[in-house]
Design brief:
Blueprint (H helix, E strand, L loop, with lengths): L6 H13 L7 H21 L4 E5 L20 E5 L2 E2 L4 E4 L6 E6 L8 E10 L10 E7 L16 E8 L8 H7 L10 E8 L16 E4 L9 E8 L2 E7 L7 E6 L2 E2 L5 E7 L6 E14 L3 H8 L6 E2 L2 H9 L5 H37 L1
Antiparallel strand pairs: 1-16, 2-5, 3-4, 4-16, 5-15, 6-11, 6-16, 7-8, 7-15, 8-9, 9-10, 11-12, 12-13, 14-17
Helix pairs in contact: 1-2
Bound molecules: 2-acetamido-2-deoxy-beta-D-glucopyranose (2 copies) and calcium ion.
GO biological process, one term: endoplasmic reticulum to Golgi vesicle-mediated transport
Pfam families: Lectin_leg-like (PF03388)
Subcellular location: Endomembrane system; Golgi apparatus membrane
Length: about 375
């Protein structure tokens, strides 16, 4: 498979389409749409200025009928704990209390740039917030080690992306009220990413807030349609997207540059249940190798080998998260004023040009 796509574009073009709906056709919206269109196209080109191709890597993928799963050392994937493979899925945990299970790749991955598409399903008899605890997708140095972080060991080394279905912290309502205003409060299930370096502990009681890189809400339980998670690592940029509405559209969850992950780590998926439970199923893990054209500078950067996972400017990230994010209104005004600024510059430019032209003509006559 060699698909070159600009997913952002596809999503954005829908919003343009919505702006063009007949009821809303005022000159202002047309102007907005036009600028948005320029913006989108620009962004799309900016995104894909280094052309990108994807190739499915079967050795790092887990797909039906799961022939690559097994206890033999020749198999590519290995099960652990309560995980079970059927014809339909790899069930990491059944909907029963105190279970944990995992499936781990046996092959270390040495790709520079990759994209993992996770087709998963979380379902169970429990009502909202009476289910737990969630699943995790890993790219870590360690593999096959049981532990408290969604069934994996704590103080792991590498990347973890969690689909956390149980709000541990919100249960302590008083603590919650003290720490968060309603706008920073989370709705669960919550998707969250974390990078560990071997000494950073995941704070289960606080749902990983102290170490999070970012995340998003994702209503993924008991859905009839398919649900997907997408993790892309390109030129040290980590992007997480979700497709959970059955619309075949990716929604942004997290996008962060400066994420340093060593090569040669293992992919895995784990899940855990406690007093509360769910079926945590992996239907497929598809790993794509991305071929990216790099500039000379990037080529040089790449040569400096990363040995310990880290995230650039983690302190700034922390700082940014304690403050409240930009509200919708703030964004609107920022965009509005930027637009007005651009228009102003264009007008001034035209006036100056006209003036200059006129002067020139005067000089020639
Ligand atoms: C891991 O990260 C923590 C927190 O950023 C830092 O204090 C520690 O020195 C790092 N450990 C290693 C081995 O880099
Ligand atoms: C994880 O690291 C922290 C701090 O470095 C340490 O206190 C804790 O005991 C470690 N936990 C495990 C399970 O290794
Ligand atoms: Ca939790």
């Amino acid at each position: 498979m060699a698909a070159i796509s600009c997913r952002r574009h596809r999503r954005d073009s829908k919003s343009i389409h919505m702006l063009f709906s007949p009821q809303k056709m005022t000159p202002f919206t047309i102007l907005c749409s036009f600028i948005l269109l320029l913006f989108t196209v620009g962004q799309c080109f900016a995104d894909d200025d280094h052309e990108m191709e994807e190739f499915l890597k079967r050795e790092y993928s887990l797909t039906k009928p799961y022939q690559a799963v097994g206890p033999l050392s020749s198999s590519h994937w290995e099960l652990m704990g309560d995980a079970m493979v059927t014809t339909e899925q790899v069930r990491l945990t059944p909907d029963m209390q105190s279970r944990q299970g995992a499936v781990w790749s046996r092959l270390p991955c040495h790709l520079n740039d990759w994209e993992m598409q996770v087709h998963f399903k979380i379902h169970g008899k429990g009502k909202k917030n009476l289910n737990g605890d969630g699943l995790a997708i890993w790219y870590t140095k360690e593999r096959m080690q049981k532990g408290p972080v969604f069934g994996n060991k704590d103080n792991f080394t590498g990347l973890g992306v969690f689909v956390d279905t149980y709000p541990n912290e919100e249960k302590q309502i008083e603590a919650q009220k003290k720490r968060y205003t309603p706008s920073t409060q989370r709705i669960f299930p919550f998707v969250l990413a974390m990078v560990g370096n071997g000494t950073i502990s995941y704070d289960h009681e606080r749902d990983g807030r102290p170490t999070e890189l970012g995340g998003c809400n994702a209503m993924v339980r008991n859905l009839k349609h398919d649900t997907f998670l997408f993790i892309r690592y390109v030129r040290r940029r980590l992007t997480v997207m979700i497709d959970i509405d059955g619309q075949h559209e990716w929604r942004d969850c997290l996008d962060l540059p400066g994420v340093r992950l060593p090569k040669g780590f293992y992919f895995g998926a784990t899940a855990i249940t406690g007093d509360l439970s769910d079926n945590h199923d992996i239907i497929s893990l598809k790993l794509y190798q991305l071929t990216v054209l790099r500039s000379k500078q990037e080529e040089e950067d790449q040569e400096e080998e990363i040995t310990i996972p880290s995230v650039d400017n983690m302190e700034l990230l922390r700082l940014g998260q304690t403050e409240e994010g930009m509200s919708g209104l703030a964004i609107f005004f920022t965009v509005l004023f930027s637009m007005l600024g651009c228009i102003f510059l264009v007008v001034v430019g035209l006036l100056l040009y006209g003036h200059w032209n006129e002067n020139r003509r005067k000089r020639f006559y």
